[in-house]
Amino acid sequence: MKVSLVTKPDKQMTGLRRYAESLYQGLQAKGVDVALVLPQPPPEWVVRLGQAMGRDAKAFFASYPLAVRLDDASLCHLASQTLATLLLFQRLPRTVVTVHDLIPHWVRDNPALSTYRTPFDRLFDRLALHALRRADRLVAISHYTKRCLVEAARYPPERIHVVYRAVDREQFKPLAVPRGFRQKYGLDESQHYILYVGSEDPRKNIGTLIQAFHIVQQQVPSARLIKAGAAYFPAQRQKLQKQVAELGLEGKALFLDHVPDEDLPLLYNAADVFVLPSLYEGFGLPALEALSCGTPVVAANCTSLPEVVGDGGVLVGPLDVEAMAQAMVALLSDPQRRAAASQAALRQAERFSLQRQAEQTCEVYTQVRN
Fold it and tell me: Alpha-carbon distance 81 to 94, whole Å?
């Protein structure tokens, strides 16, 4: 069996890119003949037409591709659900598609949360959702995502396999934080750090986190909030910075742009608490990264996050500002509670491994072949 693992040509090491890279390495380690493949770019005339319309056609069709070269692969694995447009425009061998989430579909009619910027976004996302029905098997990264697929795509549940995401436990693990690293990011050892890693996507619910942090700051003056991640939503970043200023939190809520991959584990280890307050998550990889580093986690008690965090962290209502604040205060003000939470986090992280991810994916391939 020769497998072509198709992924988006992301320049940054996004969550989707991490998934494809880690799965590729895991499959190789199991002796699978696998190649990591990128879709073909759109025709030049399409690129020029996009430019005339003020759109980046290359970026758009990287997410919703029209063609891919697979050579003699006997099985095609599309590493993201938007890549399923290939099933509409090209004849593929037996195909598996990994579905990370259907969040754009669920929030499409909510102006505050929708990520569709143009009618083309909405159209092609609908096409990709429809195309999933042509796949031989689907891999859902959580039971929550599987339930969404059954409801939204009417896909037979017996052909959907839940394979949890994983992180490299050799990279994300408890580490001593060097003084030089703290100096690089301006982290004072006398202060307590609350960390959020991710974008400003409105569904991430960072505004609620900032409100909760305002309460925390009043009870734990040494607390500082770090938001790490590039500003892919500039207007939302400005809105959050305005909120910080209005609450008098300037200098106490810090925005870090893209953090290099090699620095991310140390940033988790430098934090006293990690918070993921999302309204919607297909999995919630940053929560697992934090758990793997032994960082106490506070997360929303909705969508996929209870599956990931389990007993390894504190789950609160995503819009319950007071509960979120008091969960953080309890951890920041009690070193023994933090130590116990750190051990619980590490135990929970052991449930997710790259080896298991590769093994369960191979089991899906076997079912497709049979």
Answer: 16
Domain coverage including residue 35: 2-166+353-369
**How many structural domains compose the chain?**
2
Residue pair 207/243 in contact (Cβ under 8 Å)? The answer is: yes
Please determine, for residue 275, whether its predicted confidence score (pLDDT) is greater than 80: yes
Cβ–Cβ < 8 Å for 74, 2: yes
Q: Per-residue pLDDT for 80 more than 70? A: yes
In angstroms, what CA-CA distances link 123 with 23, 85, 118, 164? 29, 11, 9, 29
List pLDDT tens digits, range 84-96: 999 999 999 999 9
Model confidence at 13: pLDDT above 70: no
Judgement on whether residues 338 and 357 belong to the same structural domain of the protein = no
Residue 264 located in a structural domain = yes
User: Do 306 and 237 belong to one domain?
Assistant: yes
Backbone angles phi, psi at 143, to 5 degrees: -65, -30
Helix locations, 54-102, DSSP H: 57-63, 86-89
Partners of 358 in beta bridges? none
**What amino acid occupies position 289?**
E
Instruction: State pLDDT tens for residues 178-211.
Output: 999 999 999 999 999 999 999 999 999 999 999 9
315 plus 361 within the same structural domain: no
Pairing of strands 223-228, 33-37: unpaired
Given strand 297-300, what is the order of strands in its sheet?
Answer: 253-256, 223-228, 192-197, 273-276, 297-300, 314-316
Query: What is d(CA 120, CA 116) in angstroms, rounded to the nearest whole number?
Result: 8
CATH number of the domain that 260 lies in? 3.40.50.2000
Q: Tokens 């391939």 — which residue? A: 365
Length of the chain: 370
Query: Could you tell me if 63 and 8 are in contact, meaning their C-beta atoms sit under 8 angstroms apart?
Result: yes
Residue 171 lies in a domain: no
CA-based torsion, 86, 88, 89, 94: positive or negative = positive
Work out whether strand 137-140 and strand 253-256 pair parallel, antiparallel, or are unpaired.
unpaired
Neighbours of 238 (CB within 10 A): 12
Q: How far apart are CA 88 and CA 92, in angstroms?
A: 10
